[in-house]
Amino acid sequence: DKLTFTLGQFNTWYGYEVISPAGNFNYSVSYLFNAGPFSHTGLKLDYAASEDLSFMFAVTNPHGVTAGANPTNDYQLGFQTGYKGQYFNLAYGADGFGFTDVLYLDYTGGFDISESVFLGINAAYANSSDADAGYQGFALYLQNTFSDNFSLGFRPEFFTTTSGAGDANVSAFTLSGNYSLTDSLVIIPEVRYDTSDDGIVPFGKSVTGATLAAVYSF
User: Fold this and answer.
1) Is the pLDDT of residue 68 over 70?
2) Does the structure show a pLDDT above 90 at 201?
């Protein structure tokens, strides 16, 4: 009842947002999510020590290797510990893109501020001495439930890519509504503003986008 083994390809344990849009409040994804990793191929062990405390250990191929084969015989180690909905995540090793010493650290969690207001938190750091590069950043997920059918969420994010040649910064602010038409169908209107002085944002220093998405889960 407490121990689970997973062998094969599986979604990452790392980060706040997930691959499926049905699992995220916002429709667009954060820079932290885009920085990866996304999925792994290997073995992981999940242990539920209690209702509140859990541990995960993993040995996988480099996450950049998605074909199943591992011609370089380099590997990646993973660890997670969770306590009452707060998770510390770690991955270390080869990334599959030519570097063997990449360290990924991540905190994912959140708190109920009131019966209707939730604050999610994601903070992450990555670095490779071989690549002389990495990233760091954090995002907040402030969500208010107005009714059984409608919630509104705001995600401010601040993200930096680091390297020996210099750092580059970008900020993004996303306002998303979630309107549940049925138990399976959610309509997500969204407005997003990205800004950077370091060339990260396309078409200039800032960009504003609007999206109307329908997410159906089954």
Assistant:
1) no
2) no
